[in-house]
Write a structure and sequence with these properties.
109 residues; alpha/beta; four-stranded mixed sheet; 4 helices; 4 strands
């Protein structure tokens, strides 16, 4: 009977230690913010280990890079990526060709 009691007490102690040792949201938030310094325009919010990314980036590569950087942080359970990719701005059209006739002053001499 004593063995059973000690075993139960040990299991409860282990369970408490495992749950108590997980990082707090504020420490996870700090680590996430450090990882996102290379991703300007991206912000993060941490709630119960779930990171929600917001903001706007230039391309899909930057969006993926921000998510991958955050996934590696200790204490992050999952990542919700709400980052928006800016629409590509089309290049300006080439200048219109000058259709007026130009005289060649060298040919006239």
């Amino acid at each position: 009977m004593k063995c059973k009691t000690f075993l139960m007490a040990g299991m409860m102690f282990l369970a408490v230690c495992l749950f108590a040792c997980s990082p707090s949201d504020s420490s996870v938030q700090q680590s996430v913010n450090e990882k996102l310094t290379a991703s300007p325009g991206v912000t993060a919010e941490v709630k119960e280990g779930v990171v929600t990314l917001n903001g706007e980036v230039a391309d899909d590569a930057a969006k993926t890079a921000a998510e991958d950087a955050v996934k590696g942080v200790s204490g992050v359970k999952s990542v919700t990526n709400n980052i928006m990719v800016q629409a590509a701005v089309p290049p300006p059209p080439p200048p219109a060709a000058d259709t007026t006739m130009k005289t060649d002053t060298a040919a006239m001499k």
